[in-house]
Input
Amino acid sequence: MKKLVMLAVAILGTTAMVNAQTTPAQAAPAKEVKATKHNKKEAHKKAKAEKKEAAKTESAKPETAKAKK
Output
């Protein structure tokens, strides 16, 4: 009976070791990537400037139409 238990332990132990998940070895450490900061103020200023330019071109169009008459 003792031999049968030892045989079962040996088989189960071997199976557990064969099926054990191993972690892959890393060749080189991963590089740290710095996150780029999004400058909200700069984007807001650009959008604001574009709106002003659009408003200027729209206001200039009626004046030129009046001058042509």
Observations:
- Helices lie at 2-19, 40-68.
- The chain has a mean pLDDT of 76.
- The CA atoms of residues 44 and 50 lie 10 Å apart.
- The two ends are 116 Å apart (CA to CA).
